[in-house]
TrEMBL record:
<feature type="binding site">
    <location>
        <position position="234"/>
    </location>
    <ligand>
        <name>Mg(2+)</name>
    </ligand>
</feature>
<dbReference type="GO" id="GO:0006782">
    <property type="term" value="P:protoporphyrinogen IX biosynthetic process"/>
</dbReference>
<comment type="pathway">
    <text>Porphyrin-containing compound metabolism; protoporphyrin-IX biosynthesis; coproporphyrinogen-III from 5-aminolevulinate: step 1/4.</text>
</comment>
<feature type="binding site">
    <location>
        <position position="218"/>
    </location>
    <ligand>
        <name>5-aminolevulinate 1</name>
    </ligand>
</feature>
<comment type="subunit">
    <text>Homooctamer.</text>
</comment>
<dbReference type="InterPro" id="IPR030656">
    <property type="entry name" value="ALAD_AS"/>
</dbReference>
<feature type="active site" description="Schiff-base intermediate with substrate">
    <location>
        <position position="196"/>
    </location>
</feature>
<keyword id="KW-0479">Metal-binding</keyword>
<comment type="similarity">
    <text>Belongs to the ALAD family.</text>
</comment>
<feature type="binding site">
    <location>
        <position position="123"/>
    </location>
    <ligand>
        <name>Zn(2+)</name>
    </ligand>
</feature>
<keyword id="KW-0862">Zinc</keyword>
<feature type="binding site">
    <location>
        <position position="275"/>
    </location>
    <ligand>
        <name>5-aminolevulinate 2</name>
    </ligand>
</feature>
<dbReference type="GO" id="GO:0008270">
    <property type="term" value="F:zinc ion binding"/>
</dbReference>
<dbReference type="GO" id="GO:0005829">
    <property type="term" value="C:cytosol"/>
</dbReference>
<dbReference type="InterPro" id="IPR001731">
    <property type="entry name" value="ALAD"/>
</dbReference>
<keyword id="KW-0460">Magnesium</keyword>
<feature type="binding site">
    <location>
        <position position="131"/>
    </location>
    <ligand>
        <name>Zn(2+)</name>
    </ligand>
</feature>
Length: 326
């Protein structure tokens, strides 16, 4: 193989136009999904203190925000619910008049072409803050499956285009797929949180969604961050059970997992650029320690380079604007 001085790698870095010609990975607005937090009321817009620029919003103001999503060409959103009341069994998650169900109906009426994905979990709606039913201070996996399937079905009935179970219960993809199919929603895809780690990066989200566990932690159902092979097993099981898209969450500390899953399965892979990743950037940018735009674009391009096809990010509106300026 020729070596220096015959091979000069810097020739292809000469200027921006040459670099554009040989660029291997491209970040696009088509890659983005924007997370939103819907809550009850009118005229409600509460900023999440740990996530500058992210708000809990009532449906009327959420519709105004979605106008911007549409104008920027972002393909879709993922909806999280912030209920007024909670109980031991997370009734608000699957009630026909729950906040997500109402939000989805309103959004699809106003923006029928927007891709609306819904988070399927119980943690925002349970008084104990865990993602499933509690039996003797333990999350009861099998008893939870029916409620997750009921939640997904209620979202589909409201008009959701895709459901995204985030609970990490064993067998939940199969339970949801079976229930959707039995009720005639065979065309509603499942985006499974397949490799969801028990992570310290979730802290700000728990403030936004009011979903902090009231006892213990989620380590008995979310994955140990030291494990990689386990993520392959989890993903394989979700695909076998009927997942159409698989997800790695968080993204930044798990680029190796994104790469391994993409290479192993060749399935569409979503990377969730989670709340802690977002908040760290915002905090450093506020101090003037980083160039926020440059850092965010570099990070999200890194997700693409690792193998992600879809990026769920709170930066989506900013990124869509920045990409228009490139």
């Amino acid at each position: 193989m020729p070596t220096f001085p015959n091979i000069r790698h810097r020739r292809l870095r000469l200027n921006e136009r040459v670099r554009r010609l040989v660029r291997e990975n491209h970040l696009s607005v088509d890659d983005l999904i924007y997370p939103v937090f819907a809550t009850f009321g009118q005229g409600v817009r509460r900023e999440v203190s740990s996530m500058p620029g992210v708000y809990n919003v009532s449906i009327d103001l959420l519709l105004e925000e979605i106008k911007t999503v549409e104008e920027l060409g972002i393909p879709g959103i993922i909806v999280f619910g912030v209920p007024e009341e909670k109980d031991e069994v997370g009734t608000g998650a699957y009630h026909p008049e729950g906040i997500v169900q109402q939000a989805v109906r309103a959004i699809k009426k106003e923006f029928p072409e927007l891709l609306v994905i819904t988070d399927v979990c119980l943690c925002e709606y349970t008084s104990h803050g865990h993602c499933g039913l509690i039996n003797n201070h333990t999350v009861d996996n099998d008893a939870t499956l029916e409620l997750l399937a009921e939640t997904a079905l209620s979202h589909a009935r409201a008009g959701a285009d895709m459901v995204a179970p985030s609970d990490m219960m064993d067998g939940r993809v199969a339970a949801i797929r079976a229930r959707l199919d039995a009720e005639g929603f065979t065309d509603v895809p499942i985006m499974a949180y397949s490799a969801k780690y028990s992570s310290s990066y979730y802290g700000p989200f728990r403030e936004a969604a009011g979903s902090t566990p009231q006892f213990g932690d989620r380590k008995t159902y979310q994955m140990d961050y030291a494990n990689g092979d386990e993520a392959i097993r989890e993903t394989a099981q979700d695909i076998k059970e009927g997942a159409d898209i698989v997800m790695v969450k968080p993204a930044l500390a798990y680029l190796d997992i994104i790469r391994r899953i993409k290479e192993e399965f060749g399935y569409p892979v979503a990377a969730y650029n989670v709340s802690g990743e977002y908040s760290l950037v915002k905090a450093a940018a506020k101090q003037g320690w980083i160039d926020e735009r440059s850092l965010v674009l570099e990070t999200l391009t890194g997700f693409k380079r690792a193998g992600a096809d879809i990026i769920i990010t709170y930066h989506a509106l900013e990124v869509a604007r920045w990409l228009r300026e490139v």
